[in-house]
User: Fold this.
Amino acid sequence: MNDFIRGLPKIELHLHIEGTLEPKLMFELAKRNKIDIPFESVEDVRKAYNFSNLQSFLDIYYQGTNVLQTEQDFYDLAWAYFSRIHNQNVRHAELFFDPQTHTERGILFDTVIKGIHRSQEDAQSQLGISSQLIMCFLRHLSPEAGMKLLDEARLYKDWIIAVGLDSSEKDHPPSLFEKVFDKARDQGYLIVAHAGEEGPAEYVWEALDLLKSRRIDHGVRSMEDPKLIDYLIKNQIPLTVCPLSNIKLCIFSKMGDHNLKQMLDMGVCVTINSDDPAYFGGYINENFIAVQHDLNLSRADLYKISSNAITAAFLNEEKKQNLKKELDAYYLKNSGK
Ligand code: ADE
Ligand code: ZN
Assistant:
């Protein structure tokens, strides 16, 4: 089964590029940029990655980004990610980036996006991986700061397919950002939002009704509201679920308790993604493998999840058809029937 998963053509729809900063690269960049980090060794870093909730993770995650200083650093970060997923049969990735995490500490927006963009071009030409960028607003900052970010991004509009909402969910409902998202939509961005990760189902409603989100990032707490689940199924709103993240951040106490299989069986358009793989113990294959094992997913389930991701991707119909054909051929050959 693990070989079936490794060979499965996959799409990643929920990945924070800053969350792919592996400890080894963190040390390299710290040395290159002469930045002090509060760790002695890679093992020391790994030991610190013990989280009790979303905020306990975010505190360490934002601290880690301090080593990212130059355009080349952002290129190297993204290139390390693309190289890894090339070995995991990922065909297309939609990457979140958090410009405010960097501009707040004096790094220019241009520096961040130029490094990532150049890496995306190389991933396409050298590895055959297509990708898109999704710019996130940090919800622990103000809507005014979000508006300022939208202005800063104007020059680079063609490099960004969508905007999203991330960071501390509790007490930062999507409704606070309604005007920011109105403006982003007017400017032609597609919309996604983190909701129902730690926050209540009500935040998922707000993301759909007020922000007009096309997908919900996480959304696992939607199961607490039967009306919401009906709505998600009827409208086939995709959920970008991140199983290892949910365990590491104590959303579920163990993988066997995760509701992904239940939602899949009900007809929710669920996908499997890796969120912040350097912090949560695995990239997309490791997420698929953990869920398959603990929730006993069949090959048909795994095929459906990959197929859902193609449907949910921000790609044109031709590219989706091509990916679907490749997936169907793989499944036909390896479905074990
Ligand atoms: N930023 C990076 N990872 C995140 C997550 N899981 N939830 C909210 N914001 C994030
Ligand atoms: Zn996320």
User: Anything to note?
Assistant: The first strand starts at residue 10 and ends at 16. The CA atoms of residues 153 and 159 lie 9 Å apart. The longest helix spans residues 109-127. The chain has a mean pLDDT of 97.
